[in-house]
Design a protein that fits this description.
- A four-stranded antiparallel β-sheet has the order 1-2-3-4, with helices on one face.
- Helices cover 15% and strands 37% of the residues.
- It starts with 16 loop residues before the first strand and ends with a helix.
- The chain has 86 residues and is an alpha+beta fold.
- It is built from one helix and four strands.
- It has one domain.
């Protein structure tokens, strides 16, 4: 993504229900806040957007890679993580 100071729309919008693993249990919660940061770590005008989310009932931030849009997508995310283990 070219660096423009204008991040793309986040995957999960405020008010959306997301699914995730928390303390070894599947959970769901509503997105309360989103934050986007565009980083250019290689200083080559090619940015990488990092989205973080705050969920209702949780004080810590969550990253896009931790969240799924449905129970089925959460199962796929979990299975992919397990399959990636050595």
């Amino acid at each position: 993504m070219p660096v423009t100071n204008k991040p793309s729309v986040t995957t999960h919008q405020v008010g959306a229900t997301v699914f995730f693993i928390y303390n070894n249990s599947p959970k769901q919660a509503v997105v309360e806040q989103t934050f986007s940061e565009v980083q250019d770590v290689n200083n080559d005008n090619t940015g990488e957007q990092v989205d973080t989310y705050y969920l209702k009932g949780y004080s810590e931030k969550f990253y896009n890679s931790q969240l799924a849009t449905s129970k089925a997508n959460l199962k796929t995310l979990f299975n992919n993580l397990v399959d990636a283990m050595p």
